[in-house]
Amino acid sequence: AYTTKHLPSKSPKSITMKFSAIILALTFGAAAAFAPATRSARSSVRVNAEPTGGLNGWVPDENAFAWGLPGSLDPVPEFDPAGFAEGCTLNEMKRYREAEVTHGRVAMLSVIGFLVAESFHPLFGGEIIGPAIDHLTEVRKIQPEFFELLAVTIGVVETSRAQNGWVPPAEVEGKQFLNDDYYPGDINFDPLGLKPEDPAEFAEMQTKELQHGRLAMLASMGFIAQELTDHLGIVEHFQ
Fold first, then answer.
1. 37-41, 46-50, 59-63, 213-217: lowest mean pLDDT where?
2. Are 71 and 41 in contact (CB under 8 A)?
3. I need a surface site. Which of 100, 151, 185, 214 has the fewest CB within 10 A?
4. What one-character-per-residue DSSP string does 30-88 give?
5. Could you give the angle at the alpha carbon of 224 between the alpha carbons of 222 and 229, nearest 5°?
6. Residue 173's pLDDT band (boundaries 50, 70, 90)?
7. What is the model's pLDDT at position 236?
8. How would you class 134 by CB atoms within 10 Å of its CB: exposed for 0-12, middle for 13-18, buried for 19 or more?
9. Which residues contact 29 (CB under 8 A, 6 or more apart)?
10. What's the rounded Cα separation, in Å, for the pair 207 and 54?
């Protein structure tokens, strides 16, 4: 069975100091993620009075930040230090948002996976323990074909997503990879029925999802860096 390798000179004080930056980031990020949409955040999103087609009431506005897509809110509205949103076309902006939403969702699952898998691991006979970054390697020792099955599953899911919003490769013109009637990230998957019908409410929920996704991307990178540094599970640092 796999066992965790502990560093001999690790003290609770040094562990706490290493994690101070991550904890501060999570604290301030969470505050922004759960905060209600402010007036300036809502005013930057132009929506129709009634939902239109598959765009959830969003009306692309070339003069608005990010073509009027949700996601900009106080205390740092229109945050784009790398200038990705400057001068980009509508199709480019939709692709940027598609990538951001998708990576945010994967990161949120990743954060949950880190915390749950390191605390509760009944699968594979309970032999998969230790830092989450090593779990896949350990699983392959017990179930060698697991990675191939995982790759096939991801391929099926990604193919379904592509068929829902992406232009078939043979029909792509220039850089128009997304369908005109496709709203970035809306893959028609809502098993709990949480998607609002009202455009303004949808824009607010989309902003909350983006904020949680952005926070999760930072958190997951912090988790990976910390486990690579001292080879301790994230949960172990708080025990």
1. 37-41
2. no
3. 151
4. HHHHHSPPPHHHHHTS-B-SS--TTTTTB---TTSGGGG-S---TTSTT--TT-TTTT-
5. 95
6. confident
7. 87
8. middle
9. 211, 214, 215, 218, 219
10. 18
